[in-house]
């Protein structure tokens, strides 16, 4: 028993010495290639075996022949281990280089394509993560391009829509100043109308800027959807009469919601104004509200004839108007963008879909427990 303890102690001492030296060398070469680290690990293993064997041999007083046999066995193990480590190191390094080249490609603006050769489990996991990151980056670039396009369209349309009433105001003010206005009171009424248009545009821009900056402060309170929709219909009634459009409030369930009444009234008002202006005379705009498994759904259905399928994803984008018209009532393309921003601030979602003869805008709000 004592002999076995002595042998174990001698072998452990030799292995510890080799391991300490190997750890020191590994620290020195930690920034080098993985192949170098594999060489060090193999040499440490062989050195630990050899050091332990030599110390045990000295303690056991082996003769020269037996010591030579043991040393030869260790040398043969090293002779096989070192080439194996070299092959493994070259294979891992080659896979790593392929992965580096593939990663560089999508970092330069392309898409990530995983290397064809099979790698280790860790390299395969890294490859999958890079592929997922590449997909997210591609989506982000698409969104950025879409937003940039929307911003350019918004600047162009806002510039035109502001220039038009300003030009009219200038002409009417000059006519009044020169005393050539045949009906000054009519000019003043028209000037007030144009000023209100400008005020509405500036108000929409300010609201949109607050939404984009995350500075939209909500003051939610519990209220009935029935009252919310009723107020919105009453506010849009005059515009509907002017355009010869029928407003219908059908299937409005008196379910409770917890929302900012002012902001949500703006949402419904924007949807109704948009629907009324897009619906031809003698058409119908219907409003409904009901509870669904996803939440409380408010819908506004018009008779505009539908939206082209390719335009549906852009309906709520800033500056989108669905037409190249530059004159009222097309607007600046801010109303629906404001709708989406306010609804998302309430943790809800806004969607649009085509229905028979028109389209339906749906706003889904979180359900309030009764």
UniProtKB/TrEMBL annotation:
SUPFAM superfamilies: ATPase domain of HSP90 chaperone/DNA topoisomerase II/histidine kinase (SSF55874), Homodimeric domain of signal transducing histidine kinase (SSF47384). Pfam families: HATPase_c, HisKA. Residues 90-142 form the HAMP domain. Keywords: Kinase, Membrane, Phosphoprotein, Transferase, Transmembrane, Transmembrane helix, Two-component regulatory system. It catalyses: ATP + protein L-histidine = ADP + protein N-phospho-L-histidine. The keyword Iron-sulfur does not apply. The chain crosses the membrane at residues 6-26, 38-61, 67-88. It is an enzyme of class 2 (transferase). The keyword Transferase applies. InterPro entries: BphY/WalK/GraS-like, HAMP_dom, HATPase_C_sf, HATPase_dom, His_kinase_dom, HisK_dim/P_dom, HisK_dim/P_sf, Sig_transdc_His_kin-like_C. It comes from the Bacteria. Its main location: membrane. It is found in: Cell membrane. PANTHER family: PHOSPHATE REGULON SENSOR PROTEIN PHOR. This is Sensor-like histidine kinase SenX3.
């Amino acid at each position: 028993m004592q002999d076995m303890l002595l042998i174990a102690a001698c072998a452990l001492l030799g292995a510890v010495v080799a391991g300490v030296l190997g750890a020191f060398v590994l620290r020195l070469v930690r920034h080098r290639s993985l192949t170098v680290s594999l060489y060090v690990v193999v040499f440490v293993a062989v050195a630990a075996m050899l050091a332990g064997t030599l110390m045990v041999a000295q303690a056991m007083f082996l003769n020269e022949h037996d010591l030579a046999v043991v040393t030869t066995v260790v040398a043969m193990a090293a002779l096989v281990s070192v080439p194996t480590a070299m092959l493994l190191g070259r294979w891992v390094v080659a896979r790593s280089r392929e992965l580096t080249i593939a990663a560089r490609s999508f970092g330069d603006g392309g898409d990530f394509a995983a290397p064809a050769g099979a790698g280790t489990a860790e390299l395969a996991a890294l490859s999958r993560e890079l592929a997922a990151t590449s997909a997210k980056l591609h989506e982000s670039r698409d969104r950025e391009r879409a937003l940039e396009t929307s911003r350019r369209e918004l600047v162009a349309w806002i510039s035109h829509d502001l220039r038009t009433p300003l030009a009219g105001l200038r002409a009417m003010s000059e006519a009044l100043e020169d005393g050539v206005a045949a009906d000054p009171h009519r000019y003043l009424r028209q000037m007030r109308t144009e000023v209100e248009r400008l005020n509405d545009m500036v108000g929409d821009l300010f609201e949109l800027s607050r939404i984009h900056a995350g500075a939209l402060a909500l003051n939610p309170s519990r209220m009935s959807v029935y009252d919310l929709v009723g107020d919105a219909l009453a506010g849009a009634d005059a515009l509907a009469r002017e355009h010869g459009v029928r407003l219908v409030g059908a299937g409005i369930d008196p379910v409770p919601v917890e929302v900012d009444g002012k902001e949500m009234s703006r949402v419904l008002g924007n949807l109704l104004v948009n629907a009324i202006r897009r619906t031809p005379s003698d058409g119908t705009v219907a409003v409904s509200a009901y509870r669904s498994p996803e939440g409380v759904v408010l819908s506004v259905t018009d008779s505009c004839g539908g939206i082209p399928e390719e335009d549906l994803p852009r309906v709520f984008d800033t500056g989108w108007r669905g037409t190249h018209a530059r004159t009222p009532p097309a607007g600046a393309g801010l109303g629906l963008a404001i709708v989406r921003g306010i609804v998302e601030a309430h943790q809800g979602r806004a969607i649009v879909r085509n229905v028979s003869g028109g389209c339906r805008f749906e706003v889904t709000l979180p359900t309030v427990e009764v």
